[in-house]
Write a structure and sequence with these properties.
Blueprint lengths: L4 H8 L9 E6 L6 H11 L5 E3 L13 H13 L4 E3 L2 E2 L4 E2 L3 E3 L4 E5 L14 E5 L3 H12 L4 H17 L8 E5 L4 E5 L1 H18 L3
Length: 209
């Protein structure tokens, strides 16, 4: 069994969260390994569609893409319809022709800010890549090379401001840590809070006075 087969089965068993779709967000710092993980998880899900937020964001709107995502993705999926995303071309600086995003049983949304406040009501699960900001950014800079250094300087400032105003990690259901082989899944802050609340409530009922 692949290391993601069991989590994939658990995701498929969740109740739908956006129309007939179980929308699962993969969030984390830029360079933390979200795209690779989402691809692995999509394969374990039998080829689940993946929306990369790089297709929704632009140079001028690194994080101001909520309305675009709602119109192009959330509203169609909530009706059980095929969403059509106009992916942004980061070289030509313009949107391209639409690509279909089917209303599959599980759809993954991958990218920085995928677990933002405006999206969480539509999510079946929020997964956070557990890698620190500085390490993630160093990986990203190494991957993209010196030519993208100026972009990364602007990006890290924008990402820091975004997560300061609208953090995702405190609401994550699971923390995903990349290992030498495979991934380790840990309970996220949201899951831990629910467990603690359940224990507290149970204790209160057992000792009402």
């Amino acid at each position: 069994m692949d290391d993601l087969d069991r989590p994939a089965a658990a995701l498929r068993a969740l109740p739908p969260s956006c129309g007939p779709v179980r929308l699962v967000a993969v969030d984390g710092h830029a360079g933390s390994g979200k795209s690779t993980f989402a691809g692995r998880l999509a394969a374990a899900l039998g080829g689940a569609p993946v929306l990369h937020l790089d297709d929704i964001a632009t140079h001028e709107e690194l994080f101001a893409w909520t309305d675009r995502l709602r119109e192009q993705v959330l509203e169609p999926l909530s009706r059980g319809e095929v969403a059509r995303v106009h992916p942004y071309d980061w070289n030509l600086r313009r949107f391209g022709p639409p690509r279909p995003l089917p209303a599959a049983p599980v759809v993954l949304i991958e990218g920085v800010g995928a677990g933002r406040r405006a999206l969480r009501p539509h999510l079946a699960r929020l997964l956070w890549m557990e890698r620190g900001a500085e390490e993630s950014w160093a990986r990203g800079r190494h991957r993209d090379g010196p030519a993208q250094s100026a972009f990364w300087d602007g990006w890290t400032a924008a990402e820091t401001a975004h997560f300061a105003a609208d953090p995702s990690r405190p609401f994550a259901d699971a923390l995903v840590r990349e290992c030498a082989v495979g991934y380790e899944w840990l309970p996220g802050p949201a899951a831990t809070a629910v467990a603690n609340q359940t224990i507290t409530e149970s204790d209160r009922l057992s000792h009402p006075y």
